[in-house]
Amino acid sequence: MAETKLNPRDVFGEVLLEIGKTDERVMAISCDSGAGSGMNSFKDALPLQYLEVGISEQDAIGICAGLAESGRVPVVSAIAPFISMRCFEQIRNDVGYSNMNVKIIGSSSGLSHSNLGSTHQALEDIAILKTVPNMVIFNPGDGYEVEMSLRKAVACKGPVYIRMPRNAMEMPVDPEKRSFEIGKGESLLDTGDDVVILVTGTLSIDALEAGQRLAEKGYKVKVLNFTTVKPLDKKLIRNAYKNCRLMCTVEEHITTGGFGSSVLELLSDMPHHAPVHVLGIEAGSTQTGPYRELLDYYGLSADKLTETIETYIHNLA
């Protein structure tokens, strides 16, 4: 894995400014979250392409729909639980059904704001927004994935939700060895097909470390990473499932309606019957504390993932 850690907000801000300078259609819309989202440099350099709406997410989505209708490419950002939940009706009706070219950025997603409590933790946003028609969902977990998600979002036509991480993460693979396409996954580890781990977002390093530890114990393990949650890489997932004895999905999201649920729906008509375990956070969880400690509490650290998956393997006998 690449040891370089990049701050997601810094990467987002730098790339957004670069894109904005080359395409005057691109506008940055803030819901009192310009600094927290990394938009300050954009605001200073391109003030005529920046709009501060304040703590008014519903208005922001309506404004963005209007801007998109007029040919602009609005990129609107706010803390993930607020931009995905407070204004869901506007997202569904004004952006989704109308297929508007609006890019929605949920900053500090998942457990990022772990010390602020459940009101500021976005653990249901994928489940909510994947029901919106025409919506593409990116769930980046490191600096490279943040950059590519933003570039692809602005380049593609239609609504996009980017589930932004807050904490700097290591990259599971050197960027020069990676290829990013909408709706495509990537292989992080492949020593065989007995155990397949599917991971999305911020837990790619933990899932990879768990896979490596299991491989060192003699298990044949495949670890696949998915930055795009909607649409899924159906072919890659189906092919991985055909010959496996056990499949586990891993996500920093509730286990209801998220990435794992989408995988289960995809595999429901396959004749192969290997067990599929969805590893995430139980709906309604409200624990507060340091980020890494919460991941461990919910069983999502490399140590806990290794322990849990090995238990599943033993139960196959």
UniProtKB/TrEMBL annotation:
Alphabetized SUPFAM superfamilies for the sequence: Thiamin diphosphate-binding fold (THDP-binding), TK C-terminal domain-like
Transketolase-like pyrimidine-binding domain boundaries: 6-172
Keyword Nucleotidyltransferase: no
Keywords for this protein: Thiamine pyrophosphate
Family membership noted in the UniProt record: Belongs to the transketolase family.
PANTHER family (UniProt xref): PYRUVATE DEHYDROGENASE E1 COMPONENT, TRANSKETOLASE-LIKE PYRIMIDINE-BINDING DOMAIN-CONTAINING PROTEIN
Name listed for the protein in its UniProt record: Transketolase
